[in-house]
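Supplementary Methods, section 5.1.

A reviewer requested that the exact input to the structure prediction be made available. We therefore reproduce it here, unchanged from the version used in the analyses.
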Amino acid sequence: MKILFVCIENSNRSQMSEAFAKIYGGDKVEAFSSGSKPSGVINPKAIAAMKELGYDLTTHYSKSLDEVKAYAPFDYVITMGCGDACPWMPATHFIDWQIPDPKHMEPTEFNKVRDMIGGKVKELIS
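The structure derived from this sequence is encoded token-by-token as follows.
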């Protein structure tokens, strides 16, 4: 299964989604993430939130859609509620998860979004 997770900055939601897909999917899943307007950095809050679960998000980097298009077509393209900001990418299935942007949230609220993402990824993979 090949999955692309897309949000606007590729610094929070899509990065954590990619991480969860790697955690839950193992070698059965190829996971990628990108942003329609990548920030160029991974949010330190996302790094800390995933570190609590034993995943090192510092090995990731913020990518544009152009940087991942070579891996298309995808089985799934999952957008994070970014609407018109997320352009089309070749895929069998398109799903939009309405996930709030945790960028400015306090750690407790940020972790609730992280856990919501983890649950959605686990459900998708199963």
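The beta strands are 2-7, 30-35, 74-79, 91-96. These observations are discussed further in the main text.
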